[in-house]
Write a structure and sequence with these properties.
About 25% of the residues are buried. The protein has a domain of about 110 residues: Aminopeptidase (3-Layer(aba) Sandwich). It is of the alpha+beta class and about 160 residues long. It has a seven-stranded mixed β-sheet. It is about 30% helix and about 35% strand. It contains six helices and seven strands, in the order E-H-H-H-H-E-E-E-H-E-H-E-E.
């Protein structure tokens, strides 16, 4: 299934995005101890970054149906590194290779020197997924996410030259 369209999600997409995020209540409870928030995803940005220039939430659509999203920040924590906050695939379309497809489309479009993501220890499925895409763990840390303190793994993938 590669007949999809990529759209930048904005505040104008808030209602549609919240309905999509609501499909992932188990994930947000597991990893953050609270309900997921579309507004939170659209506005979460490190204080050193410009939300207008550096924050992107991309929706992957098939015939106006939101199949998945990737949330990312450009040039963070350093230049030429793009950090992925969330990669969410509609539950009806999981385990069909869409997450990897969407990631590869993104990777080819932005061609960063390095990609980074953070995975919570309890999210073993995500950890394995990112490893299959070539990400390696660079260090562990504890993060305050929502109502939980999580042991997290920071994963990175460098560009193949």
């Amino acid at each position: 299934m590669n007949d999809f369209e990529v759209k930048l999600l904005t505040q104008n997409s808030l209602q549609e995005l919240q309905a999509f995020i609501d499909l992932f209540n188990d994930f947000f409870q597991l990893c953050e101890g609270k309900k997921g928030s579309a507004a939170g995803i659209l506005t979460a940005c490190p204080p050193t970054k410009d939300i207008q220039q550096d924050k992107f939430v991309l929706g992957f659509y098939q015939k106006e149906h939101l199949l998945g999203l990737i949330d990312l920040i450009a040039n963070y924590p350093q230049n030429s590194t793009w950090t992925i906050g969330y990669l969410l695939i509609h539950p009806s379309y999981q385990r069909q290779g869409l997450g990897a497809q969407f990631f590869h489309v993104l990777e080819q479009a932005i061609s960063p020197n390095k990609m980074r993501c953070v995975v919570q220890e309890q999210n073993e499925r995500a950890f394995k997924f990112w490893q299959t895409l070539g990400f390696k763990m660079v260090y562990q840390r504890e993060d305050n996410l929502g109502k939980l303190v999580n042991k997290t793994f920071v994963l990175e993938k460098g560009r193949l030259v």
